[in-house]
Design brief:
This protein has 363 residues and is of the alpha+beta class. The protein has helices spanning 2-13, 32-38, 42-45, 57-67, 118-163, 169-195, 208-219, 244-259, 306-309, 329-339; strands at residues 17-22, 27-30, 75-84, 90-101, 107-116, 204-207, 227-232, 239-242, 266-277, 290-299, 343-349, 353-361.
Amino acid sequence: MKRNKEFEQIFNTVPDAMIYADKNRNILRTNKRFAEIFNYTSDEVKGKNTSFLYKDLSEYEHQGKIRYSEEGTDIIEPYEIQYKRKNQEIFIGETVGSKVKDSRGRLIGMIALIRDVTEKRKFEAMINHSQKIESVGRIAGSIAHDFNNILGIISGYADLILLNAQNLPDIQTHTSHIQEAALKAQKLTRHLLTFSRKQNLNFSKTDINELIKNFREFLSPLLKNNISLYLNLCEVMCCVKADPGQLEQVLMNLAVNSKDAFNKKGTITISTKIIKIPSTNDHLIPLKQGNYVLILFEDNGAGIPKEAIDHLFEPFFTTKPKEKGTGLGLSTAYGIIKQHGGEITVSSVVGKGTIFKIYLPCI
């Protein structure tokens, strides 16, 4: 009796969902953690085949072929598959197992341990994406710096030609076109240098709420009559160490992006709040522990396709027609926010709108 109680205690204190099933994959027993992860009680699942826990029936059949056999090792190495909770929500489960055999070595069942690693994988994906953008930024910055030097030489020689061609109108015209092209190219390289964080910023103590209020007066005339702009600012001061002009550039780039996403009427809402990123970082953002000003820039426009989200902050990536954008607006915003020690993320639903979240360290 005492041994059974000890076994019961061990069974229910395991931090992963535990399932004990017979050789036909019918559930004999589950622990408390199973109920927390899958949202089923032990009585609801006892005697049922485990197939209803899998996202895909084909995956259930595949696992049966490779796990439930007399051959092979008794210990099942960790693997990840998609499971299904009671409410039909899909999650990623890291699974390990062990075959249960009788005294003659015949398979009579299986014990499986399942750990929900969905949030962990999301965080890892975010870190990998951030590192990818960092690598692109270093390459872009290096190229932009060298290219900018070459453009300086081109502009310099164009100036010299103009000085010596005062009586040659055709040459002046052609040289002016060279200068215009060089200036446009220099503007593009400045965007790339911003993205790679190789520009100098003028930092000062800045109240984000005041900056947004002032920006509203500047932005309103630029928006179409069918676009409404609302502010939902927190009551306390939201002070950060920032270059106000650069942060206004970020807001402008986001506003232009939203404006292009509206077909007819639309709404832009800018909100602020102060949040605390704990050491455990439950927000799944690669930020250090501390207090941050969170700026939410929301619109109810067309939204962004899922396949485009991961590339949104990359230089020259755009979902707009060629004549409507260079693909540098959001990459520039990304570079500015990173240079401020912050983070910018995006979430979107096609047909419903987009939310940009900007995190800036408080002072």
